[in-house]
Amino acid sequence: MNHFRRLKACYLVCLLSSAAVAHSQPLTLEGVIDYSLSHEPWLQANQYQQSALQAQSIAAATLPDPVLTVGLMNLPSNGFAFDQEGMSQLKVAISQQFSRGDSLALQQQALQQTAQQFPWQRAERLAQVKAIVSEAWLNAYRAQQSIKLINKDKALFSQLIEITEASYANSLGNTRQQDIIRAQLELTRLEDKLVLLEQQFDSAKKRLSQWLPFDMLLGAVSEQVTSVSPLIDYQQLAPSKVIELLQSHPAVIAIEQGVRAKQTQIAVAKEAYKPQFGVNVGYGYRDDTPMGESRADLFSIGISVNLPLFTTNRQDQQVNAAIAQAEASKTDKLITLQKLQGQYFKELSQLSRLAQRSQLYKQQLLPQMAQQAEATLNAYTNDDGDFSEVMRSRISELNGKIDLLNIYIDQQIITARLNYYAAAHDPRISQSVADGERDE
Which of 50, 52, 206, 287 could join 83 in a cystine, given CB atoms 3.0 to 4.6 angstroms apart? Predict the structure, then answer.
């Protein structure tokens, strides 16, 4: 028994340790995207809505149920005897109404066209989630790397403070008390910046909690430098090709499917000008006469016609309403295209400027800042400089490194946003549309 307990305890310890290792794995951008897109509940809800419309389309193409009528007719009120009068009968009738023209087939077509929006809506959602999740991860990576840069230079500032305090205590050189205070102040500011960056890091990770389980967020973000691959070469894409790119966007195609459904609804409304037919068949059973003579049973058949003669307030207005809804959907498509186009060119312009800034920082600013920091430190060491200049140059160099990191992260975020507009070129999103259309 004791051996069993020991084995059980060892097994639990192994499980817990393996779980801790699994949960402590750093979050990678690819892993976060894969998990988010695979566990997005909105996609399942949208799939249910599509299934509901597909079921409604089948029901819409079905004729209304026939109506069965059973009744006693023409009973005499002075005795209610069934065999007293020849007109008395037990009548069983069935009637069936038919649709106006092709209205049932057109209604089914309209619902099927509406259902075709949903695969494109899911594709648009995938592209949207991918961009949002990528931005949240990159912001967390930005904060984590900024903290790493500050902690790296923080040790240098601490050493400078120790050297300054020792120099001041021994009355060596030009060290003044205000130099020590200035150094401590800059160190305190770095501590405050670290707290702010920790807050930004936690906020970015909490943004991911909409898609990731809490235990996945306990670990750090991967230190591996990750670049967001552009789906196409945005810088080389001609402006005339941008409209073609945006017209293939899932959000636009979803609206196009809705426009087709609205146009079919116009045809449905026009079918109301056609007459509606109905058929009824009846059989009347009559009892024998009081003298025992047989009476013939009665058979009846009839056709009913619903004539749309007064169309001004009904049929005409229904057609006008259907046309107005179709035009409104076309306007929605135009508005969506204009919105996507404006946002696309805004992001593209920012990407171009960030590329210029990145080149400027790498080739000129950071080397110059490093030279200045080294020169001021050498001057101060040789009692030919001011300590405040040493601190200012070091802080400037640190801020330059953080600025370059921010430029790089902003480039990746904007690339992820631009990939949203080029969602039609994303293999995973295209596969999602193909799977959705195959399920119809």
Answer: 287
Distance between CA atoms of residues 333 and 259, nearest Å: 9
Whether 22 has a pLDDT exceeding 80, the answer reads no
pLDDT of res. 269: 92
Q: What is the DSSP string of 88-135?
A: -EEEEEEEEE--STTHHHHHHHHHHHHHTHHHHHHHHHHHHHHHHHHH
Reduced to 3 states (helix: H, G, I; strand: E, B; else coil), residue 244 is helix
Please tell me the distance from the alpha carbon of residue 61 to that of residue 106, in angstroms, as a whole number: 8
In angstroms, the CA 412 to CA 406 distance is 10
Rounded CA separation 385/377 (Å): 8
Minimal CA–CA distance to 117: which of 267, 250, 247, 264? Answer: 250
Is the sign of the CA dihedral 215, 220, 223, 228 positive or negative?
Answer: positive
The dihedral formed by the CA atoms of 179, 184, 187 and 193, expressed in degrees to the nearest 10: -110
Count of CB atoms situated within 10 Å of the CB of 157: 20
Who's near 128: CB < 8 A, 6+ residues apart? 420
What are 126-174's pLDDT values in tens digits?
A: 999 999 999 999 999 999 999 999 988 877 777 766 766 666 666 555 5
Q: Which domains does the chain have, with CATH numbers?
A: 38-66+105-275+312-438 (1.20.1600.10)
CA distance 226 to 409: 10
How many whole angstroms separate alpha carbon 127 and alpha carbon 246?
13
- The Cα–Cα gap between 54 and 322 comes to 21
Q: 68 has which bridge partners?
A: 94
pLDDT tens digits for range 284-297: 998 888 887 888 88
CA dihedral 228, 231, 233, 234 (to 10 degrees): -80
pLDDT at 246: 94
* 3-state secondary structure (DSSP) of residue 13: helix
Query: Which residues have a Cβ under 8 Å from the Cβ of 246 and sit 6 or more positions away?
Result: 252, 337, 340, 341, 344, 421
Taking only the tens place, the pLDDT of each residue in 399-424 is 999 999 999 999 999 999 999 999 99
> How distant, in Å, are the alpha carbons of 4, 54, 308, 385 from that of 48?
49, 10, 38, 73
Say yes or no to pLDDT of 4 above 50.
no
- pTM for this model (two decimals): 0.82
